[in-house]
Amino acid sequence: MHSFKELPVGYKEHLRIDIQKDKRLALRINGIAAAIMVVMLVVGHFLVVPVWTLISAEPDTTVTLTLTKPLVMLGGMIVYIVLHELTHAAVMKFYGAKQVRFGFTGLYAFAGSERDYFDRHAYVPISLAPLILWGIVFTVLMIVLPREWFWVAYFWQISNFSGAAGDIYVSILTARMPLGVLVQDTGVGMTFYCPKD
């Protein structure tokens, strides 16, 4: 069984994190996200396709067509944020969550379940599913789209990797916890419970 509706007997709180309240942790995660973004931008520009192909136009191209790619890119990024959270929710449901709550804090969109406790074997896939699923989708798009559309899909991929900095952080944290750890994820905060010694 990978999820519980009630905290099992013999468990106690081990660690609580809240990215909204812990400014130091938020800065660290946002710093990691920014570093990922910068590295991917540099790699994409210098080793794959120059970034100006996103907005450059052929001599006979109208301004409207010049703006098409950036507008598609921005619209796709908004859709991706929704799909990212729906992916978390789908995997939570797969592992037994009865109700998933969605929200937006002003900085972060989230999917969480206040009534479920997930074991390590469920919570790591819950955390990493959007990164892996959409990473594959965006990689395929980067390969199959024409060269001049590369940066549209690549910006989505950059958003995927940099936006998953918090998911990667909690996955690593969960993997380092004692074997019987259970995680309650409300969306903006996680509480880790471990068996009492």
SSE blueprint and pairings:
Blueprint: E1 3-4, E2 11-18, H1 23-48, H2 63-94, E3 101-104, E4 109-112, E5 117-119, H3 120-144, H4 150-163, H5 165-175, E6 182-185, E7 189-195
Antiparallel strand pairs: 1-5, 2-7, 3-4, 5-6, 6-7
Helix pairs in contact: 1-4, 2-3, 2-4, 3-4, 3-5
> How many β-strand stretches?
7
Which value, in Å, is the CA radius of gyration?
19 Å
Total domains: 1
Percent of residues in helices comes to 40-55%
Which sequence of SSEs, written as H and E, runs from N to C?
EEHHEEEHHHEE
What portion of residues belong to β-strands? 15-25%
What distance separates the N and C termini? 22 Å
Mean pLDDT: 90
Q: Which spans of ≥5 residues are poorly predicted at pLDDT below 50?
A: none
How would you characterize the overall build of this protein?
The protein has 197 residues and is α+β, with helices and mostly antiparallel strands. The protein has a five-stranded antiparallel beta sheet with strand order 1-5-6-7-2. It has one domain. A hairpin with a 3-residue loop joins strand 6 and strand 7. It contains five helices and seven strands; from the N terminus they run ββααβββαααββ. 55% of the residues lie in helices and 16% in strands. The chain is elongated. The two termini are 22 Å apart. Helix 2 packs antiparallel against helix 3, helix 3 packs antiparallel against helix 4 and helix 3 runs antiparallel to helix 5.
